[in-house]
C-alpha cells in the first residue's frame, strides 16, 4: 500500500537535506502544464519556499492550454514563472539543417525534430540557473521531472529531459505521482490530464503503445498480459544505451 503522506514528507526532507548539505539556494524548473513538473514544483515549493523557485514555460509550437496550466500551477504554488519562447530558435535550427541537406525528406526529420525540443529546453534551464546563481548570490539547480515508468522504458530524450541535478520522482510510478499531486493539491485539470510530451501531438501511452499501469505492474512483478509484457521489456532493453556511456579503457 502506497503511503502518500509518508512518501511526500520523505521527499521534502530529502530535498531540504540536499540543499543544506550542498549550500544551495534555489531551483529552475521547466513547467510544462503536465502533472510531473507540477508535482515537482509543488514539492520544491514546500521544501525550499516558492520565493526560491523560478519556473520556466518554454513553448515550442506548444498548445495554448498547456500554457494556461503552467501559469495556473505557478500561481497555485506561489512561485514566479517566465516565458522563454523557443519557437523561432527551433524553426531556425531546423531550417539550417535542411539547408545543409537540401534533399532530405520531412519524414526523415520527425524523431530528430521531436528530440531537439527537450534539448533546447534543457539548455535554457541551465542557462537560467547559471544566471540566477550569479544574480542571487547562491547556487540554483535544475530538478528532473521523470518518473519511474518513463525511466523504465527509456521514455526520455538523451541529452534532454534526462539531464538534471536532482530527481525526486524517479522511484515513483505515474499512479503514485498522481496520488502525491492530489495530496499536495495540484490543480485538478493538471493532475488528471492525460500524460503527453507536448511535442508530438500524441499522449505518452499512444506513443509508447503500452499503458503506464502495465509498466508499473511489470516493475513490481505483478501480472501483465504476456504480449504487453514482451513489448514493455523490449522497450526497456532497447533503451538501455540511454543510461550509460561506454568508455574505452586501456589494458
In short:
With 251 residues, this protein is α/β, with parallel strands linked by helices. It has helices spanning 4-22, 35-48, 64-77, 87-100, 110-136, 148-152, 174-183, 188-191, 204-208, 212-219, 226-238; strands at 24-30, 53-57, 80-83, 139-141, 143-144, 166-167.
Q: What is this structure's SSE topology?
A:
Layout: H1 4-22, E1 24-30, H2 35-48, E2 53-57, H3 64-77, E3 80-83, H4 87-100, H5 110-136, E4 139-141, E5 143-144, H6 148-152, E6 166-167, H7 174-183, H8 188-191, H9 204-208, H10 212-219, H11 226-238
Question: How many strands?
Answer: 6
Average pLDDT number: 95
Strand order of the largest sheet: 3-2-1-4
Assign the CATH class.
Alpha Beta
Please tell me what the overall shape is.
Answer: globular
The biggest beta sheet, please? 4 strands, parallel
- Please count the helical segments: 11
Radius of gyration: 19 Å
CATH topology: Rossmann fold
Strand-and-helix sequence, N→C?
A: HEHEHEHHEEHEHHHHH
* Beta-strand residue percentage: 5-15%
Return the domain count: 1
Helix percentage: 40-55%
Looking at this protein, list some descriptive labels.
alpha/beta, Rossmann fold, two-stranded parallel sheet, single chain, four-stranded parallel beta sheet, 251 residues, globular
Write structural notes for this entry.
By secondary structure, this protein is α/β, with parallel strands linked by helices. It has one domain (4-199): HUPs (Rossmann fold). It has 11 helices and 6 strands. The strands form 2 sheets. The protein has a 4-stranded parallel sheet, sandwiched between helices. A two-stranded parallel ribbon has the order 5-6. Helix 1 (4-22) crosses helix 2, helix 2 (35-48) runs parallel beside helix 3 (64-77) and helix 2 (35-48) crosses helix 7 (174-183). The chain is globular and about 50 Å long.
